[in-house]
Amino acid sequence: MSLSILVENLQKNFRIRKKSGLFKSVFSPEYFDVRAVDGVSFSLKEGERVAFVGPNGAGKSTTIKILSGILHPDGGRVEIGGFVPWVDRKSLAYRIGTVFGQRSQLWYHLPAQDTFELLSYAYDMSREDYLSRIKMLVDAFDAGDIVSKPVRQLSLGERMRCEIIASLLHRPKILFLDEPTVGLDVVSKGVIRDLVKKASDEDGTTVLLTSHDTGDMERVCDRVIVIDHGQLVTDKPVRELRSGYIREKIITLAMKEEAISLTMNGVRLIEAVPHQLRVSVDTSQISVEAVLQAAMKLSSLQDITVEDPPMEDIIKEIYAGSFV
Amino acid sequence: MIKYYHFARIAFGDHLSGRLRIFTRYLIFLLLDWVMIAMWDLIYKSGYGPEQISVVDMGWYMAFSQMMFFLSPRLFIVIDSDVRSGNVGYFLNRPIPYLWMRLSEGIGALFGNLLIYYIVSVPFLYWMIGEFPSTGWFGIIAVMGGLVLASVLHLLFQILAGLSTFWTNDAIFIYHSYQKFCLLFGGIYVPLALYPGFLSGEVLKFFPFASMVGNPVSLIFAPSLVGFFEVLALQIFWLGFVGFGLSAFYRLCLRKVEVHGG
Amino acid sequence: MEGNFIFTMGSNFQFLLALVRMTFKSAVGQRSALLIRAFFSVITHLIYIPVWYVVFSVAPDLSGWRLEHALYAYGLAISCWGIVSLLAFGLRMIPEQIDHGELDSYLTLPKPVILSAAFSSSKNTGVGEVLFGVCLLIFCGIHYGFSFVPMPFFVLMGSVVFASGILFFATLGFWLKQFIGSAEEIYFNFNLMASRPAPIFTGALKIIALTLVPVSLMSHIPIDFVVHHHWLTLTYAVLGVAAYAVLAVSFFYLGLRFYESGNRFGIKG
User: Fold this and answer.
1) Which site among B9, B15, B17 would you substitute to test the A interface, given the most A Cβ atoms closer than 10 Å to its Cβ?
2) ipTM exceeding the 0.90 mark
3) 8 Å CB contact of C11 and A121
4) Which one in A256, B175, B186, C186 has a CA-CA gap of 20 to 30 Å to A282?
């Protein structure tokens, strides 16, 4: 069964009480609606890996919770392989896996393997199927030593590996990950990203991932949906986001000379140390080639590196509205 | 002292903004009152009512004795949660002791409840009981005055129950135990003066439980300035005693503070 | 297979058994403070006996309700409290689970949310409460001659009523934030009310005790049966218990539509 995701004009409001004077708040309180999700539309094909990115309060988690059947929307349409998540919650649950970075599905005082076994009953897996699947996942996630320790004794990274094993146990067609790398150190983040990508590659699992960390979307996803204030800001493949939005390149030059001066329109000095120069080039004003030619005239270059600016800067600019 | 006042003031506003919660809790209070008034009504109808107390006065006694538990906020739950989550540790570097900060907040919320319960309850109780007590408004005001410090004392016991989480991992059952002690020794179901010989009411009235319920609420039967100040004096003694004990207990608890770190 | 009713019920039951097994395993793993809890648990319940002794020393017979009935009612109430604490402590914690967004992971499982929410935690003090309650019932049987035969059934029936009552009031947590404190107060008083003399529940109070806070189904009607053997009343009570359970579960699922998963606090505004 094809499990594509279709979201049309999705809306979710939260009712918040207005701050007012004591007696007014007691006897005639006023409320206002905050639109957490305000008309978001997008679709995902089976097997796609999409990052859902946005600043705090943008509506990412609310959207993912509506898609996984946790929250009821106030308007719009969602279909996942013909299922409406909040109506067909149970049927859909067999087909999706979820990881919420800030909430655990593992039993705190027991080893993770006990939770896996409980989940095998929740997903009606046969014993043989469960045992072979868990062996495969534990091997793939190199988690042999950690699944038998009580969860409370695991580090955050180890716990997250177990969370992902739990979410993949029943071979879900879609994996929803809500900030799976939040709070992790650099090494653990890398491990989690690689594992999610590998699992998705092997089983063709669709991945929808929310994160603040641009590394998650660069290392795991093919496409990025940016939302802010509950509205869709942009929806592009990751590489297009780079090529389409980047008007800046970072050039690092290593040279024999101790120092050179590259004073040109569109070139901004980032850092100058003896025998090395780092500049930013605004490609709308001057080409990279022209800058390199000028540099070669001034010095004997030993090494040249041309980089895109960090994805984080691109996303920051998208939030700021520069690229909308 | 001014900072304690501000904690209390903020808690007062915060408490009153939870209208639905206050309303729900008030409904429970009314239901319990109703049951207790009905129980004593039946006792009088069955011919067992004490001659020296009228059924109406007994009704008001029952209503106010239930009220004491509803005037204070459920502070032990807050402290229990602070201890279990380790949040208590994050309050230690503030220039206001955690213990007295929570007490100030409790008193702020208590005054919110006093405002509501005292204003709203009189007409409701009159409607349920059918008459004002024989001692009239004087009796009602004396009880209301006596219940203020009683409720502060109850807050101190709640903090004690909350801090017990350091050893028990759960304050709720400690609180339930304490509540049952209040039921027996406080004179909640039966005024202390009517207790049978082996549980002498004359002795029990010197216990802190009686200072919270039986002593102040008994003012409904015979209010007098002397009686009121006697109740007040005993309450102040117990506030000092329990407050001092609490402070020592808190210092003991601090040795067990654990904060989940990275 | 998913749509097959028998398969669904069977798999739900298997899941429930696995869940209860896990809950016990987890509770056994947390042995800390068990002794102190057990001690206070026994004290808490023992202390209530003299309370009733005092009441019945003032009024020995309230329209046929005497000390033995109060003790029997209290035995039932405590057994039910213990059973719910032991097996379905999660019910009591539902308001907290709502506030902390803990229903999220249950909502993404293909099993009824209520099973996970109710049976995924246990209070080991429940053992002491069940034992205390049962001992009190046995004492009533021996000392006052009440029949032992219907006792297990009444404990079961009362537990369903009490669990449903907890679920019903805990569900208010979908609308009332930080409701756990008030909810605990309701559960405690619900249980206490079950041991109040049945004859005081007349008129509107009787209606409340049979509907919204059905303490009569939990203790008054069973005691009436023990004394008078009114089969028809008991039959109606059993139907009432089933209806109340259905009402509580339906109310919970209604509340679930308003579940905010803690997101309200995460949004700007």
Assistant:
1) B17
2) no
3) yes
4) A256
